[in-house]
Amino acid sequence: MLYLNKKLMNAENKYQNVPILIVFALFYNAITLFFIYNIYQDESSSLGYLFIFPIFWIIAGISIAIYIRTDKIKISNYLEKIVLGFSTPLPFFFFLIIWHSISPASHINSTWEHERNGLKYKKVEYTYSNLKPERTEYYISSGYGWVKDSIWEFYSKDGKILKRENYMKNKYRN
Fold this sequence. Notes:
Layout: H1 2-14, H2 18-41, H3 46-69, H4 78-85, H5 90-102, E1 106-116, E2 119-128, E3 133-141, E4 146-148, E5 150-155, E6 161-168, E7 171-173
Helix pairs in contact: 2-3, 2-4
């Protein structure tokens, strides 16, 4: 009887760390998604996240390592290792790789905003999945949003210019 109770106790304790690891992974990924959301809300601050992401990943890694090192969490089975894996940047990078390989032909490669003579300008560059340029767009702030401006360039997949469109404050010019 004592052997049976001990066996049941071991079975219950086998997955006792999974809820703790799941909560940690959820918080970790929620913070990562919050950072990504902020990047898309204010693209001018996205360079700052180049420094924030590694610092956050290091702090999260050190905190989980301290819990494991002090035996507050014991990683003893594959389920715990899998859940622990979701508390690292690896799933994020795998998701990005898969997303870029199955998403449409073009991606926004970069956006750039600047101000000159009291007007705001925006440049958006799109690339093909092979990272060659697809098109370059320019906008000017109208007070109600962005309108097309300047010379837009469209490229073939091998990088040659296919066509140019000339705009001035949202009006097409030849």
